[in-house]
Amino acid sequence: MEREGNDCDVGDTSLTASLFDGEASVLSSTFLLDHVGEVTVTFHSDRLYWKLVGSLDNTGFMIHLALMLNRSFRILSIILCIEFVISYSSLCKTKYDSDRFHISMESVQASMSDLEADWESFPATMIRKCIENGSCSFAKGFTIEKAEINLNTPGEMKRKKTQMLMALGVEMTSPILVQKRVLMRLVHWVDHQKTRNEGQLEPSNRYMKLWCWYGGRHYLDISTCLRVKYFPKAATEIKLSEIYAVELNGHGSIYISSLPPAPECLLLGEDIQMFRFTVHGFIRSKNQPSQCILADYTFGHTNLQVCRKWVNQLNASLKQEVGRPKNLLVFVHPRSGKGNGCRTWEAVAPIFSRARVETKVIVTERAGEAFDVMSSITNMELNSYDGVVAVGGDGFFNEILNGFLSPRFKAPYPPTPSDFVHVVKDNGDALVNDEDEIVAETSSKMEDQFPLISSPKQFGSRISNLNSEDKAAEFPVPNEWFRFGIIPAGSTDAIVICTTGTRDPITSALHIVLGKRVHLDIAQVVRWKMTPSSEVEPNVRYAASFSGYGFYGDVITESEKYRWMGPTRYDYAGTMVFLKHRSYEAEIAYLDVESDEINLTSKRDYQGNLIRAIRSSHMSERRICRTNCNVCNEKPNHASVGVCSLTPHLNSEETRWARSKGHFLSVGAAVISCRNEKAPDGLVADAHLSDGFLHLILIRDCPHASYLWHLTQLTRRGGSPLNFKFVEHHKTPAFTFTSSGDESVWNVDGEIFQAHQLSAQVFRGLVSMFASGPEV
Ligand SMILES: Nc1ncnc2c1ncn2[C@@H]1O[C@H](COP(=O)(O)OP(=O)(O)OP(=O)(O)O)[C@@H](O)[C@H]1O
Fold first, then answer.
1. DAGKc domain: which residues (predicted)?
2. What mean pLDDT do residues 713-741 have?
3. Going from the N-terminus, what domains does the chain have, and what CATH number goes with each?
């Protein structure tokens, strides 16, 4: 086989951080493929290999010390630092030979004479010694590698060494990228040698591991070194699934750290001009595992073809990654949250362009625009997208969701008890989205001052548009392929926190371009209203996170008056509403579903509800929703098809209507946990993204102080907001609500919805999100 390339060494040169909006940092590591010393790349004409050895430079060392000193255990830190510095300096004094063999272990030093006497016999001698002595510990990824690494001798000598290594049977034969792991394998020469004949060593394949490198001379796994824990900023291995882009960077400078013996020279380095390519990936924040931090690895090589080959091969592999979007529709709400919508999009847009995801961006100019676009877009056009991205808050996402579902999702209205006042003639069979109803909905929304629809005329034109186009192209809902993404820019961002585990635009953007997928329950909330002609008029709204009446409705109404305050308006409005302490009379009927998990007590009186609440708070400790959540992935027992498969708990044989009646400070129905920065565990810590249940939380009228205590519990991590006598918590697939006397309004995903009579149900996993659930 023609041996076309070189064995190249790569030096980790710089770790720079730049802040993203004060929340996430962008990390950039630069590696260099050349004869520098730390990372080896063995390049064959048909296959590529490299080994990366990360380095902790002096800056990293100093930062590490500073961080340690900053911690509260000062004395301990100082002792450790002293130990560290002593060990560090002693390590720095270790000699190494002129061929840059980095020997740091005594057992290896014993072989120095072999090495110095006859370099070319060194690998063979060393390997033999390893076998004979059984000293694999020092040989592991260590000694022999260095024989390979040390090919920075120019000319004839290098060729000789190469030939010798090949003669030793160390030719790399395993194709890279086969295992969907990349960058590439740490070639481990001595691992399996005992089972093989001496002299016939073959490399075993290991995932790339970055060996931290102290002082330019010592290969040490720093995470265990000197009893000081160090987590390198660069990933220790990168899976192909974690790479979102690879691109050629053209000719440019690469900073190479110097590798002279003296430690002070580590600060020195030089820029070398060469061809470069960058692998864009991410690492996880060590404090917050859900948060992804961009990590770019830039490689340089003097030969452009080498870079091209790498880029092409990596891109070819990335193309085979399933589920990655290619074309997205993006809505940007410029005034969302603190008015950062556009800036947020600008910050993440490069991630999309690097990943070669096409985006059609619509910056909204008014409330309701995203709804109009989503509801009027033809199915044919929608089919050309892999999903829709909302750059904004929960309310904005809700608008897009409603625009998407209203004209397309055909489902029965929620079930109601037989005495529910407005039983619709075809209760259970009616489909919510016929044209007449959409028009009726329009007028109702106008009445509510809900801003989704600008004018009935405009909506009328949408309907005719749908009529002609929809017949041509089908757009099934639920739709496995089509997904929603949220780049958080709002005031609360509860949906994004629950689906990605963090409130970070970079993480959300990565979840989108990497094609993550998680199913999300959606609540259908129907307001029933008598028209002047005495007809019952339903008005449907979909909610992805929370619908609340009373306190929650009053807060949203009040906060709208203070929108100019930005996100602080919720605190201000919340305080005002809390001080008023208003309760509202209502009757709630909910479907009580028999299930092992949720039927915790047979008592259904007031006290019984208390017991249930306590037990369910215990449950929450055990079954928190997370990435690959077992509860969300559980298949329902009932094998139902079509829309019925979305309401598995309604099909359960053991269902009955239970009721609660009285004065309530609030009535809330949470689809998901609704975690946010104010309520770190959310309203319901054990709510799941896709279990087909609503969490009905009824707060009965109670003394002011008790209510304050309940609210305080909400703001605490590990608090028990449901563990109160006046709190009822029911896990249900459907409920109805009827108010009497003075009325509040409903707050549906942060938007006002007026309803005196309402029925609701949840559709399990109705939509898919570009997210993977929280890493908890
Ligand atoms: N260009 C616009 N101007 C004014 N309002 C808009 C515009 N675009 C969208 N909206 C409306 O603003 C409402 C609130 O938006 P959004 O949810 O993004 O912000 P927020 O209320 O600050 O955040 P959160 O919902 O997370 O608390 C949405 O319901 C949407 O209808």
1. 323-529
2. 91
3. 7-319 (no CATH), 327-769 (2.60.200.40)
